[in-house]
From TrEMBL:
The protein, known as: Pentapeptide repeat-containing protein
Database matches in SUPFAM superfamilies: Pentapeptide repeat-like
Pfam families (UniProt xref): Pentapeptide_4
Domain of life: Bacteria
């Protein structure tokens, strides 16, 4: 796992709205802090070597954005459209991403830590070196994905749906879920604990566990 290559102590303070000063909607080498961004719609914005701290993006649309070496700290990106976005060496720390749409995005060296991602859409994606840590992914749509070195650590996965997604090498043993919707055809190689195995046996095979 590669971490964002950003020298946080040397970033220049800036406003997100400075992105409009560049014809190609580009921000780099800066700190964004304490802003409220409401319903902004920008096609193909680019952020490089940026720390975003306590910023709320309310129902924004950043389709086909490019985020490289970016750290989001305590941000709210709920209900934002981040579809077809490229994330490379990006970290989300203590962020709120309820209902956020990541469909058809590309994740490479991405970490979600202590995040609330309930009802988010993560479909038809390529995920490589991606970690979900101590995060809530309740009722998340996680379908038709390609997973390489993707990890879930101590996450809440109740009502997560992962259909048409090969789960070989995925370890859910220290995660929690009351119910989960997986594709029987793609379970081979999935790692679970004994309690989870009992649920899956009952769910797919109608085996009663006493």
């Amino acid at each position: 796992m590669e971490h964002p290559k950003v020298a946080a102590d040397y970033l220049e303070p800036a406003s997100f709205f400075d992105i409009y000063n560049e014809e190609d909607f580009f921000l780099n080498n800066c700190l964004l802090k304490g802003e409220f961004i409401d319903q902004e719609k920008i096609q193909r914005p680019t952020l490089e070597q940026v720390v975003v701290n306590h910023v709320t993006f309310s129902s924004c649309d950043f389709n086909r954005a490019d985020f490289t070496d970016v750290i989001f700290k305590s941000c709210d990106l709920s209900n934002c459209q981040l579809d077809e976005v490229s994330f490379y060496r990006v970290e989300f720390q203590n962020c709120k991403l309820i209902g956020t749409n990541f469909d058809q995005s590309y994740f490479n060296n991405v970490v979600f830590e202590n995040c609330r991602m309930d009802m988010a859409n993560l479909n038809r994606m390529n995920l490589k070196n991606t970690d979900f840590v101590n995060s809530s992914l309740k009722d998340v749509s996680f379908n038709e994905n390609k997973l390489v070195k993707t990890h879930f650590r101590n996450c809440e996965l109740t009502k997560l749906t992962a259909l048409n997604t090969p789960l070989k090498g995925i370890d859910l043993s220290d995660c929690q879920f009351e119910t989960i919707d997986l594709d029987r055809n793609y379970l081979r190689g999935l790692q679970v604990n004994a309690e989870q195995a009992g649920f899956l046996a009952q769910y797919f095979l109608d085996i009663k566990i006493k």
